Amino acid sequence: MIKNLFFKKKVSYQSQKNSQKISKINIQLMHKIFDTINISILVLIFTLFFLSFESQRKWSNIYKTLSKTQAMNNNLIDYISKTEQYYITELDSISTHRKTKPEDLIYLNIIKDKKESLFKKNFRSLIEGLRDSKYQRGY
């Protein structure tokens, strides 16, 4: 019985030693696995961070371009509405103006200038000047 007990103790001590070795190896292996998982998660987080940062920069550039395009479209819409308003007022004014007919026109007779000689013009101005007392001498 003592032999059995001693044998049991010896076996149990060795099994404990073996189990501690195995448990140490298991613990070290588990630590390595967790370290690897943690490192891979950190690498994944930093990779996704930089990818999201890059995509945010691209989105900001796209948004800026879209804002400029929207402003240009708003300006075009303003110009189009002003042009439409101008044409609508022109069309309205066409209906208010009366179209003329040949009966409405006034025809003027063209008076032909008579050609006078230079002598007659000067003589006539002399006579008119004498009548107006242009050529009279004063006191």
How do you describe this structure in short?
Keywords: Membrane, Transmembrane, Transmembrane helix. The chain has 139 residues and is mainly α.
Q: What would you say this structure looks like, in words?
A:
This protein is mainly α and 139 residues long. The protein has a domain at 8-96. 78% of the residues lie in helices and 0% in strands. It is built from 2 helices and no strands. The protein has helices spanning 2-96, 118-131. Keywords: Membrane, Transmembrane, Transmembrane helix. The chain crosses the membrane at residues 33-53.
The biggest sheet amounts to: none
Q: Tell me the distance between the termini.
A: 184 Å
Q: Give the integer mean of the pLDDT values.
A: 78
Range of helix content: over 70%
Radius of gyration: 58 Å
In what range is the share of β-strand residues?
under 5%
**SSE order, one letter for each helix or strand:** HH
Morphology call: rod-shaped
Structural class: mainly alpha
Low-confidence stretches: none
**Number of beta strands:** 0
Count of helical regions: 2
